[in-house]
Design brief:
five-stranded antiparallel β-sheet; elongated; 58% helix; palmitate; Outer membrane efflux proteins (OEP); alpha+beta; single chain
Length: 478
């Protein structure tokens, strides 16, 4: 329901001059309220935690963008650079930025003057009229200008909402880039670890096969019972049975790299990484928590969504108040085309209308409550995003510290096993040990190497996860 304001019109012989709109209370009120906005309760996104872990060091105020370059592999750098440009997820997120910008322009344009032109030709007849007019033609050329000033903050909140949604989609592009980079790096490291494990397992299988052949010979000579032979055969078969799965996993990682870099697996020419290709980066000193909150793309996106939903609450509240539309129409109308643009054919209208909600069945209030609930959801999502980010950094710091110790111990164990294997070979040459002892020592050394490979792979993966958790989006790096 609503009420109509007065309309002032004029034409040939009209008595209301063009400045007569200033006498209209509706239009005058609109001008006064155009700069007003209904205040809404501000939102607080919460405080920033002071640290990631107790006693953990922090330094710097800027997040690292191209964090994957710390591994020192140019092939990996090129693959990531291609992926963050052509990966479907990044392309899709970039398209949504353009869509959000277009929607913002549409929302902004709705509160700008709307101009339309309306040429019209009509044939009319009123034979039953009091003067018995016959059919005649009306040629008309007029235009209309209408303007909704967006009172009570309707325009301001629409502008804020549109700008915040664009910022949200831009941050989502940054998050998509980092997701692609993280996926490629993790797949490359995992594939390198699997390739090293495959090589080690094949060497272990070869040693186990030689030991099995030796035991078969001793069993055939009646020197040993059959049980050691069966036990060694089971061990050899178990090692061989694990190889197909490892090969399939390595292929799956290459397929993941292909998809993340934006190509089909059959067209992918990358992959086949080795652990030796990667340099273990220096210890990470994380940026201060405030820098993480200010620059990590998923947090930036969540915060922008809070701003958008807060502005949407303002729009819902502004809809509870009256709205005003100002309009002006002017042009020419004549029964003959050759007199259409003569001064006597001119016509114009100035009007202002006010629409005030009186009863709408609770629709507008329901919209306001829905907007408030959506805002509450956005705030909780933002808080959850921040907590998850801090958890990822805290986990990464602990894991990286533990990985250093694990790599050190596994390398020491491999060195010890290597020394035992060397000693066994020397003793065999001197006749102080049998060949069975040599092969057993070799298998133990290979298994220690396998543990060292797994520890090194995990160290690289955890380091990558920590760097990704502390990363910002550096568009220049892409």
């Amino acid at each position: 329901m609503g009420s109509k304001g007065p309309a002032l019109s004029g034409g040939p012989g009209g008595k209301a001059p063009w400045w007569g709109w200033g006498r209209s209370p509706v239009l005058l009120t609109a001008l006064i309220l155009a700069g007003c906005a209904v205040p809404i309760r501000p939102v607080a996104v919460g405080s920033v935690p002071g640290a990631y872990v107790r006693g953990g060091p922090v330094a710097g105020s800027v997040l690292v963008g191209a964090w994957w370059r710390g591994f020192g592999d140019r092939s990996l750098d090129r693959l990531v650079a291609a992926g963050v440009v052509r990966a479907p997820g990044v392309v899709a997120a970039s398209a949504l930025v353009r869509a959000a910008a277009a929607n913002r322009a549409a929302a902004t344009g709705a509160y700008l003057p709307q101009v339309s032109l309306n040429p019209n030709v009509s044939r009319q007849s009123f034979p039953t009229g009091p003067n018995g007019y016959g059919a005649y033609t009306i040629d008309e050329m007029d235009g209309t200008i209408s303007y909704n000033p967006g009172l009570f903050g309707a325009r301001a909140y629409a502008f804020r909402n549109g700008a915040a949604l664009v910022a949200y989609q831009r941050a989502e592009v940054g998050a998509a880039r980092l997701t692609v980079a993280d996926g490629i790096v993790v797949a490359a490291i995992t594939e390198a670890g699997l390739n090293a494990q495959i090589r080690t397992d094949r060497a272990i299988a070869a040693s186990e096969k030689r030991l099995l052949d030796l035991l078969n010979g001793e069993y055939g000579a009646g020197a040993i019972a059959r049980l050691p032979v069966l036990q060694q055969r089971a061990q050899y078969q178990a090692t061989m049975s694990a190889l197909p799965a490892l090969l399939a996993e390595a292929s799956a990682e290459r397929h993941a790299m292909a998809v993340d870099s934006g190509v089909a697996p059959a067209e992918f020419r990358g992959g086949h990484y080795r652990l030796a290709d990667f340099t273990v980066p220096r210890d990470v000193v994380p940026a201060v928590p405030s820098a993480l909150v200010a620059g990590r793309p998923d947090i930036v996106a969540a915060r922008a969504l809070v701003s958008a939903d807060h502005a949407a609450v303002g729009q819902a509240v502004a809809a509870l108040y009256p709205s005003v539309t100002l309009s002006a129409q002017g042009g020419y109308a004549s029964e003959t085309f050759n007199t259409l643009f003569e001064p006597g054919a001119a016509l114009w209208t100035l009007a202002g209308s006010l629409l005030a909600p009186v009863f709408d069945g609770g629709v507008l209030r329901a919209h306001e409550r829905a907007a408030q609930a959506t805002l509450a959801n956005a705030l909780a999502t933002y808080r959850g995003t921040v907590l998850t980010a801090f958890q990822q950094v805290a986990d990464g710091l602990r894991k990286v510290a533990a990985d250093r110790e694990s790599v050190r111990e596994s390398d020491a164990a491999a060195a010890t096993a290597d020394a035992a294997y060397t000693l066994a070979r020397q003793q065999f040459k001197l006749g102080a040990a049998d060949y069975n002892t040599v092969l057993t020592a070799e298998i133990a050394w290979r298994q220690a190497q396998l543990a060292a490979v797994q520890a090194q792979t995990q160290q690289l993966l955890d380091d990558a996860a920590l760097r990704a958790a502390l990363a910002g989006d550096d568009a220049s790096a892409h």
